[in-house]
Amino acid sequence: MTQAQMMNDTELRISGIEALYKTLGATATLRFLTLFQREPTDYVEISRRIYKGQTIDEIFERAKQHWEDEGLVEENREWSAFSVASAMRGLEDEEMPYTHTDLKDE
Q1: What is the model's pTM?
Q2: By 3-state DSSP, what share of the chain in percent is helix, strand and coil, each rounded to 5?
Q3: 34 lies in which domain range?
């Protein structure tokens, strides 16, 4: 697990601000944070700039490799199983309205 994955939200915010401060300096960091809070962010435009010139397959492959390198594939499976188990807690004894035949592909 990476350090960023082990941080809580407050620690992540502080680390992010420290990284900005080291890169931009105090004045530019404060300006950036003010802009970020004041103006709506166009995430579509940000994505276009980040992924410009890349195919979907390249982006997907890089993301997949990152998940594998960081050990996130297995962790994601564990969280998914935990999430389903949590959502179903207390429903084990309830009658199911659907059967497996209802779920067949057509």
Answers
A1: 0.36
A2: 75, 0, 25
A3: 1-39
Residue 4 has pLDDT above 70, yes or no: no
Residue 37 CA, distance from chain mean position: 20
What's the CA gap between 5 and 75, in Å, rounded? 11
Q: Does any domain span residue 100?
A: no
- Are 79 and 86 in contact, with CB atoms under 8 Å apart? no
Instruction: Say which DSSP state 54 is in.
Output: -
Please write the tens of the pLDDT for every residue from 27-68.
888 888 888 777 677 778 888 888 889 888 888 888 888 777
State how many domains the chain has.
2
Tell me, what DSSP letter sits at residue 96? P
H helix or E strand, kind and range, residue 3: helix 3-6
- CB under 8 Å to 75, separation ≥6 — which residues? 1
